[in-house]
Design a protein that fits this description.
Blueprint lengths: L3 H12 L11 E6 L5 E7 L7 E5 L9 H12 L3 E6 L21 H18 L4 E6 L1 H11 L6 E7 L10 H16 L6 E5 L2 E6 L1 H8 L3 H10 L4 E6 L9 H7 L3 E5 L10 H19 L1
Helix pairs in contact: 2-9, 3-4, 4-7, 5-6
């Protein structure tokens, strides 16, 4: 259920201003990555006694994607420090989502390296614990980071709509594409090829870029969830069918905490955004008590 407390937190600022409902103290920051690419993020300072929240958007989107941006607004209004980067995908100051037909040379490993960069940036800006909240493929990238060498400040990953590359085609076709990409890489090929990936019917990329995203499957996610160096909390929509009806139970069987919001889709649209905010804050408060 949606608490009246958080509804008021979100609605009152809109009633008191003709501007977009967004905290007035948001700061757009720029940082040069080790690759030389200039990445951007939106930072909002919160209460010093609350953990800082790093929000990671979905595949090829930006920090302005509604699911992530509305959650960032809600968490900031609830008093949390928030940092919402746009993963660069190799493009300095990227401000728009990338179409499937664009030239994709970026890799998932580069995305995870950027998550690490922003966790460290956030730790310098706001001492204390950090929680990552990722949406869709951003939740998988966040989990991969948590399995590797996460910063000691990382305390938890909250995964919204946790998915793999959303492969819904014949598994034999998928296996053939993965095999083809691996052979091209082994031959040292870097020219562009077109494969279906996720919602893209034609993902124009190097074999390296395609394989870095497409190789992650459901068994991999379950394995990663067992290896995470910090607790993993999963929030799924009850009407999100991208991973199959049995996906929440499979995650639970792997030892994960999974909450399902009845009626919500992959993006937690409409009234479900309030339920998602309430549940996220509840998980954050629970982790604060444990720490």
């Amino acid at each position: 259920m949606v608490s009246s407390h958080f509804r008021q937190l979100l609605v009152l600022p809109c009633l008191l201003s003709v501007c977009i409902c967004q905290p007035l103290f948001a700061e757009t920051v720029e940082a040069r990555l080790p690759t030389g690419t200039v990445a951007t993020a939106e930072f909002r300072a919160g209460k010093p006694d609350l953990p800082a929240i790093l929000l990671i958007h979905g595949f090829m989107q930006t920090r302005d994607f509604p699911t992530v941006s509305r959650l960032a607004d809600g968490l900031a209004n609830a008093g949390y420090t928030t940092l919402s980067p746009t993963l660069s995908l190799g493009i300095s100051r990227r401000a728009s989502s990338l179409p499937c037909e664009a030239v994709h040379r970026h890799t998932l490993e580069q995305d995870v390296a950027e998550i690490s960069f922003w966790v460290n940036w956030l730790a310098r800006r706001k001492p204390g614990s950090v929680v990552i909240v990722g949406h869709s493929y951003g939740s998988l990238q966040s989990l991969i980071y948590a399995v590797g060498k996460p910063a000691p400040t990382l305390r938890r990953v909250i995964a919204l709509s946790l998915v793999d590359a959303e492969r819904q085609s014949d598994p034999r076709t998928v296996a053939a594409m993965l095999s083809d990409a691996k052979k091209r890489i082994a031959r040292g090929e870097t020219q562009l090829v077109s494969y279906p990936l996720g919602y893209c019917k034609q993902y124009m990329s190097t074999p390296q870029s395609f394989l870095s995203y497409a190789r992650w499957n459901r068994p991999d996610i379950l394995r990663l969830s067992r290896q995470s160096k910090v607790p993993l909390e999963v929030i799924m929509g009850g009407s999100d069918d991208r991973m199959g009806e049995d996906w929440p139970e499979k995650l639970r069987s792997a030892g994960n905490s999974v909450q399902v919001i009845a009626g919500a889709n992959h993006f937690f649209d409409a009234e479900h955004e309030f339920d998602m905010l309430d549940l996220t804050v509840s998980l954050l408060k629970s982790s604060e008590k444990k720490n």
